[in-house]
Amino acid sequence: MHHDLLHREVTEQIIGGFYEVHYELGGGFLEHVYRSPIIEVLRGRGLLVEDNARLPVHFRGRLIAEFRPDLVINQVVLVELKAHRAIEPADEAQIISYLRASNVEVGLLLNFGPNPSFKRHVYANSRKIGSGIPWYVDRLVTHLLTALSEARSRMIPRIPRPPRLVQE
After folding, report:
1. Across 15-30, average pLDDT
2. Are strands 71-73 and 117-122 parallel, antiparallel or unpaired?
3. Rounded to 10 degrees, what is the CA torsion of 36, 38, 42, 43?
4. How far is CA 149 from the centre of its chain?
5. What is the rounded CA–CA span in Å between residue 56 and residue 22?
6. What is the pLDDT of residue 83?
7. Residues 6+ positions from 56 with CB-CB distance below 8 Å
8. What Å distances lie between residue 48 and 40, 53, 128, 155, CA to CA?
């Protein structure tokens, strides 16, 4: 039954890298200590790792907030790093919120606590209200439109205003 898991190959690589890092460093450090090693290991496994990506949250066409998941892998899996005794309900609520806010459907919580653990969450895009283009495409389009606007403003010559005629 495991053969039909969404993004199975990517999540297997992430989980394998997670255990590799935990085996070498052990538990007991704060979350930020594990960030650099997991990025190094995942990139070494050939995965595209985006650190501190921004996930825009829109309401009625307006940007109202941004989430920042710890990692986005291959643009298809969100990863949150934790260093607790166990994965907590607030951690799960966090990753589900990130999944709801994006077009990414798979999220992994990686807990580097004393007993390493992980949880995999799936939130299908078909369940999301207003799911349109993926967030990373939205971000790319926003950057391109901004660059185009800036380039256009530099290209349009500034025509000086004619002097005001003063009647005496």
Report:
1. 95
2. unpaired
3. 10
4. 26
5. 31
6. 96
7. 63, 65, 66, 101, 135, 138, 139
8. 11, 12, 25, 36
